[in-house]
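User: I'm putting together a small comparison set for a docking exercise, and I want a reference complex before I start. The sequence is below, and the ligand is zinc ion. Could you produce the 3D structure with the ligand included, as structure tokens?
Assistant: Of course. I'll restate your input first, then give the structure tokens for the complex.
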Amino acid sequence: MTVRHRDGIHFEFQGESRVVADARSAVGAVNVVSHAHADHTFRTTPETVVCSAETAAIAEARTGTAFEFVERTPGIELVPAGHVVGSRAAIVDLEAVGGTDGGDGIPAEGPRRFCYTGDFSIRDRCYLEGFDPHAVAADALVMETTYGLPKYRFSPQEELEAAIADWLRDNDERPLFLFGYSLGRAQKLQWLARDATDGGREILVSDSIHDVNRAIERATDGSISFSGQPYESLRGLGDELVVLPSNQARADWVETAVDREDGLKAGFSGWAVDDSFRYRGNYDVAFPLTDHCDFDELVETVRAIDPEVVYTQHGFDEAFADHLATEYGYRARPLKRDQTTLEEFC
Ligand SMILES: [Zn+2]
């Protein structure tokens, strides 16, 4: 039994990818899709896709391709990951997915239950329930470590939201351009903006963000809804709040509109802790509003689950694994992509 980072995370038994998580090619016998950020268009016809109904609906809206899915399968249980609507972590029970006999390569000793987090956040915020590491029983943890350095510590959510609300209210006579990912941050910005201004300011969004809004509203039967409306033009703005995809922050059409309308630009990301984030996006202000754990929350997650072994991936995977090993004595190592020799449980 081996865990490898290839295209996605592979749980392999005797060279066969039995469970594959978050890959573009669904080559596993069972394929987990943790959330709808990646474009899961599946070049192969997957045998079984495990994801939430919300993830399937949002992925279909984003890619135009529907796929068959189940929300659970023997040996795999999904739990809320608190990252974006529909995001899930997966609890993988090796005995149930691989069997204990028939030479499946599951050793008598070693981890039996893996928790694979995908992207996750333990904060309850807006309309999302955070990932609850205290409710997870697992003896191995495969986790994302985007913000795995001590400098990435973010204020408590209420403080962060209060600071954003203050800035919106302090600038109530000019258009404000707010930038975040089309799925995730863009919806939370609409949510916070509506709360902070008591619905008194018009919220405009790009078509791509509007499409994601609609997909979430449909996927949740309207229990979550957003007030942003698509704009016809960005001319003649007054005090509107304009939510745009962060990859457009430096686009010419955006800079032109911001200048012409005498607007201000705000960026939202955990990377806002670094000054370079503000300069790269040419933002007037930046807030560390994120859909990931900060450093302390990553540590808290590991300590709450208290697994025998931790595999890290994304961001500061190496530094964070070192921190877990030296500070807390965990067996921890980064999962390097396409690295051929990894620890095998045997
Ligand atoms: Zn994500």
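Residues 35, 37, 83, 119 surround zinc ion (CB under 6 Å). The two ends are 8 Å apart (CA to CA).
User: Thanks, that's exactly what I needed.
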